[in-house]
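Weekly puzzle thread! Below is a chain. First person to post its structure in token form gets bragging rights.
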Amino acid sequence: MELFTATWFSALLAIILIDLVLAGDNAIVIALAARNLPPKLQKKAIIWGTVGAIVVRSAMTVGVVWLLKIPGLMLLGGLGLLWIAYKLLVDQDDKGHDGPIASTFWGAMKTIVVADALMGIDNVLGVAGAAHGSFDLVIIGLLVSVPIVVFGSTLVLKLVERFPIIISLGAAVLAITAAKMIMSEQLLAVIYGGPDSLPSTQTLHTAAQWVTYALAVAGVLGAGWWATRRAKSEGSGELIPH
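Winning reply:
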């Protein structure tokens, strides 16, 4: 992918939006991890925890980008990203953010690094998928995501609470990214086309691509809306007509 082209900037925008939407819970858990430390140790733990988080997330992202080149894994990665997008919508009303609390500097730093590694899987998968193997975008995604996760917990939380549509927009971006991952799967080239596709089949391939985009976005948003509506109805004792 060439630098500073329309495709490059669209991928960068998708990565930033993915980071913005998915970083909220990670940042909150990290903030809770160091909340019992003295102010000086809190700052120190966050700084050194950030260094550790960058190393861990860099290794994870590069590893995911490499693994997604294996036949079949782009399909699995795309399906996994669809599930993450769905869960993002379903879990948005969950206000519980209980997390591990550390009382020592090393305990807090360990918690920050481990939490970022465990909870950053969705973020890493989203960034790797949106970057399409472009390592410059992967690096930019890392530079954007780590400060948001470690330093931007309050900002992210307020932004999402003020503009809830960001959650749906982010889920749609993830769904589109997932669709792109699925369509780039080598094993599905007969459906979506590839370098060796005949010109006569291009129209069919294009139609299949647009149908996949539509199904991915509509499926995620529709399933998320239905699950949220059903949960609210069950909570209030109402019955949902079948």
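Puzzle host: Confirmed. Bonus trivia for everyone else. The longest helix spans residues 202-236.
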